[in-house]
Structure formats: C-alpha cells, structure tokens
Amino acid sequence: MLAESIIRIGRPIVQSDLPNQQRIRWLTDVDSENCKNFFQHVFLIELDGDNTAFHFIQIGDIEDKSFVPNKINNIAFPILYPNGGNPLHAQGIYPVPCYLMYEAHIHAMEHPESFAVDVIFPRLKNTVSFRQRSEEQLLDVARRSAASIAPHFEQFIKQEKQLGILYIYDHSLSVYRSLDKRSEDDRYLWIAESRLSLGKQLHIDGDQALAGIIEAKFTEAKSLGSANNAISTFTNQEEEEVASIYNKFWLWMSPTWEMPRSIYWGKDEWIRGIKVDRVSYEAFLYGTQFLKQITVPVTSAILKEMFAPVTSMEAKRHMKHSSFEPIFGVPFVLPLLEGDVEQLYYKYKRILNQSDKSDDDIHLELLAGIHKFIPQMSDEHRLMIVYYSGDLSRGNMHIRKVIEDVVPSVAALLQKIIKDLNRQELLPIVKALRCNTDKEYHRLRSLPSLLANAYGPGYVWSSLQTVLHREPITVHRLYKNTCIKLLELALKEDEWGMREELVFHHGFLAFYARYQEEVLQSNERVNTLADWERFIDHYHAGEISLSQLQLAEELGFVTGLLLKQFSHSYHRKTGKDFVKQRVMKFGSKLTPDMIWKYGVLRCEELAEQRDMGLGKNFRPVLAQVLLGFLEAEQTHTLHSDKDKFMTAFWSGYLMYKKEEE
Question: Is residue 294 a contact partner of residue 301, using CB atoms and an 8 Å limit?
Fold first, then answer.
C-alpha cells in the first residue's frame, strides 16, 4: 500500500532531530513558489486587551524585478496554500490566525464590518488557536482587527494586483511570546517589534505552532470521517481516535478521486476505507513532504528514448523532447524491519541534499532515468520507485508505474553492468562498426533507454520492473525491431544509420550477456563482439566449417562477410555495388532467400565471368556457406529465425574489413 510506505518513510523523520524551523517549512507552504508574492503585503494586527495596533510589513526584497521572501523570517508565518476549491472562502483548518489574502480580500478591507463578518470571522472559527473562544468572542476579534486596518487602507492599496497575509497576534494566545529582545532560542521565531509595548519583540512558539499544524491537518482529515476507540489500519491496534487517510494535503490521496470510493459510503464515511491514527498521520505528513522534495522529472533525453517510436527511425528523428508529457519519478527507501532510526534518517538527509556522492551509491539516472542517488545500503532495505505524470498541485495526476521491492545489491550490480558497458565494452563495438568514437550513444546510457529501444515504448514499464526484480528477459523482440530498422535504413542507403543501429544492438547484447551471467546466474549465451571477432579471424584464415554454421545467426554473419568481400572485388571490376544492384532488386526488402539465391549462388558464376581476383579464403568459405544454406532450407531455420539471420548478415557485412586493413 502506497500510504503505508509513506508512513514508514515519515516515522524516522518524526523521531529525528530535525529542527522546528525545518519542520514548519515542510508542513506549511512558506517556501512554496505559489506563495512568495503573498509576503509582499503582511497585515499584522496586534491585540492586547482593549488595545489594538496595525503593522504593515514586507517579508523579503525585490531582486531582479522579482520578489524574494526572506527565508529566515518567513517561517514565523505558517501559511497554508489551498488545494482546489474557491480560495476566497475559508478552507480547511488553520493552525494559527495567519491567512492568505487575495486581491478581492484586500479591496474589501476598506469596509471593516463586511470584511470582519465575511472574511475574518469564518477563518477564526476554523483556527486551532481560537478553538476555545465562543462565536461572540471571535466576532469581536474579527471586528477589532478589521477596524484597525480600515484607516490605513489608502496607504497600502495599489492599482496592480495585490496578494497578502493577514496575521492576528493576540497576546492572550499561548502560541505567542512577547520577549524583551529577539530570542536566540530556536524554539521562538521572531515576527516583528511590538507597537503596543515599546521595545518588546513579538515571537511565535515553534513547538506550539508545530503542534497546531499537526492538529489542523488531523482535524481536516476527520472531516471525511472519524471514529473513537477503533482499529488503525496501520498499527493494527485500537487507537483513541482514527480518521480517514483520504485528504487534500497530498493529492495522491485526494477525496476528489471517485475510483476508490464505494458507492455505499456517505460523504463523511471515508473512514470505512482506510483508518489512520494521529501518530501515523503525523508520519504520513512528513513522509509526503519528504517525497515532494525528492521528486524529480525523468531526464528529457531519456524520456525521448523511452517513448519515441522504436521501429521507425525517420519518425524518431523528427520527435522533439517537448513532444512528450513530463513524467516524474519518486524514489522510496524502506527498511524491511524497523531498525536504527538515526541511521535511516541520515540516509534520507543524503537523498535530500544529494551531497557526498560516491561510485558505490545507487545512481538512479542510470537505473530509473531520474537525477537522484541513493546512499549505499544493505539488503535489509528495499527500494521502490513511483512514476507519475500530470500536475500534482491540481490533483490531475496519473500513476504510470510503481516498482516495488528492488533489492539494493541487485540495483548496484545492474548499475555496475551499465557503467562497464559504457566505459569498457561500447568503444570496441563502435570501432568494429567504424562509427564515430566521440559521439554520445544515449540509448545505451541508462536502463530505461536500453530497454525501451530494445523492446519498444509499450514494454518500458514491464521490462524495467522485470529487470529490477531479477527476472528473465528475452532478445526475440530486440532482433525483430533491429531487423525492421535495418531494412528501412538499407532501402534509404543510410549506411551510417545502419552502423549506429548495430552499435545499439550489440551494446544491448553485451548488457544481456552480463545480465544472464551475473544477475540471473544462467548458462544461456548470446553472441557478443568477442564471438564475432573470432568468426572474422576464422573467416580470413578460410577455416569456417559447416559445424560453425548450424544456427541462422552464425550463417547470416559469415554470409555478410562473404558478400562484402565479394562486393569489394565486384566494385573494382564494375564500379557498382553488388548487393544493391544484384541482390536487393531495385529497392525490394532483402530476405534470406534473396541473399541465398541472388547473392551467394551467383558469386562463383560472376567471379568466373569477370575474372575477379578473390582472396584464397573466399572459395573454401563459399563452399561451407552453400552447404549451410542447404541444411537451413531443410530445417526451415531461415524462416523461423529470419530476424536473427538478417541482423547478423548486416553485422557481418558492415564489420568486414580487408586483412591488410
């Protein structure tokens, strides 16, 4: 269950030494990009008995024509940004009397009675700090606050759009502290200097503010259903009070979803679904905020490789990064058992700060396409990755894939294989196919792009989960897709495109071979570059035997070498390309039968007619290849393994080089 995983992440954070300032930042919207302009106009009302004072302050400065809030002082203003609904109306529960004011609210300040009744009073009724006050007392506070603002209306009203914060500092509330000087204690957060008591400094108690925030969130959750002395879904024990987990704090669990809600539930009966106790809900709040901060989009270059058409090179070349909807990745690190809270929190801090990276860490850009790293950890933990698209702030999001229970040692081994592929094994492949050694081969840089280009965009999520779960994969679809692309490029006479396509093909086979041997510990083998280089050596020595040509792939590779060697001699005599002129037949799609009948069978005849000087190795190999085709025809190998034959044929054709070279 996703909610349970979030709670498990939040528990170490709740029990950690995370300072109150940071906790308030996490659980409120003081640092939200949506809220920065509200700090330009802060309407601070100071109430002490019958005395009232008005402060008009700005928390931040203009930098490069943009307002930037003061990151030190803004935590004393625990604002909450509404998710959905009409923000002009009071929404949810407020921990302290600190409210966002929109343009319509600010213009209404000119009329104190209506502003008090319609704007301030409904918010005071939903404020934790004023919970013990009667409606008459709250209405009095609202009227006194509105009356203190109205005389100053002309001073702060502007023509352009304004946003602001209304903050009511009532000296009688225990959440506030009036001190002789600005406190150096981290518990007390400075707001402003008092105008009712000269020299006094106004502070908010961080401990009480934090408790109010938790209470506000839990009270808001209870609006969708609550129960006393009921079993919590997450502790499996009877708790004094439980509430519904569905809420608008994190819109993955929004009650606006219709799908998970039973038609037999009432509007306030979501408690019949998932029940959460107060302690678990606090962990849920911290867990969601932590995950928000480590959520990153899938790298644009990798996103293109993941979802561009895989069988049409022309279509892929015309796709832009902007053609794809952004997809976000969220990495979870979960302990199998509740262990050392301090160590787990330390790992979370490293994920958050992304500092002190090392090669032993799990780099998720290689494994998952997201620019985050996970500190090295034992197999007593599990990694989970959630992918989603859409706008989370609006609740308009779609979970694309949840990959659970990834073993860290398996992830580390896969990472090593991909690193080795790009650092050691790719260069010999590039050189063998005579491609550009300075070019970046993005398709081989990460696991998602490797799998997407091998199997196609429709298999991205399933194949990624399969590999991360250490399950068997096949190469059948790889050969099929490579064969389709090579035929398309061959018809366009795009030889460089064919070479680059084969770089990926043989690069993936190198990954596959390592995956079979080291991850699955399987005996299954595929031909890699080292195997083909041995075939090339035997070919030049004329030592190819029929026993080496029993499989379609080996027969195709040697046939490619043979026709390329013949084509060199044919070109010297005629100035024409043998395969293009004689074998492909005016642009028709090349097949194993065409290669056999129009290519291999014609070699000896044309060599005699044109007195072509062929190397000593040619005729001994030609004889074995002809026998190989006859056997393949009898066993129907050419038809059943056509894709392997054609891919290997083009590999041999493009890897061939003269001995003296």
Answer: no
Strand 42-48 vs strand 164-170: parallel, antiparallel, or unpaired?
parallel
Q: How far apart are CA 608 and CA 149, in angstroms?
A: 106
Q: Which long-range contacts (CB under 8 A, 24 or more apart) does 402-407 make?
A: 402/2, 403/461, 403/464, 403/465, 403/468, 403/469, 405/469, 406/382, 406/468, 406/469, 407/379, 407/382, 407/383, 407/470
Whether the CB-CB separation of 387 and 328 falls below 8 Å is answered with yes
- On the 0-12 / 13-18 / 19+ scale of CB atoms within 10 A, 537 is exposed
Long-range CB contacts for residues 544-549, cutoff 8 Å, separation at least 24: 544/620, 544/621, 544/624, 544/625, 545/624, 546/624, 546/627, 546/628, 546/631, 548/624, 549/624, 549/625, 549/627, 549/628, 549/631
Cβ contacts of residue 472 below 8 Å, gap of 6+?
A: 466, 520, 522
User: Across the strands, what pairs with 168?
Assistant: 45
Residue 385 neighbours by CB under 8 Å, 6+ apart: 329, 330, 331, 332, 364, 368, 370, 401, 402, 403, 406
Q: b/e string for 603-639 if b means 16 or more Cβ within 10 A? A: bbebbeeeebebeebbeebbebbeebbeebeeeebbe
**Average pLDDT per consecutive 10 residues, the chain (661 residues; last block may be shorter):** 84 87 90 90 94 93 88 92 83 93 93 94 94 93 94 84 94 93 91 92 94 91 87 91 76 54 77 88 88 87 85 73 82 76 73 72 90 86 88 73 92 95 94 90 92 93 95 95 90 90 96 95 91 93 92 94 89 82 70 88 83 84 93 86 94 84 43
State the Cα–Cα distance between residues 181 and 185, nearest whole angstrom: 11
Residues 6+ apart with CB under 8 A from 524: 516
How many residues can be counted in the chain? Answer: 661
Other Cβ atoms less than 10 A from the Cβ of 369: the count is 29
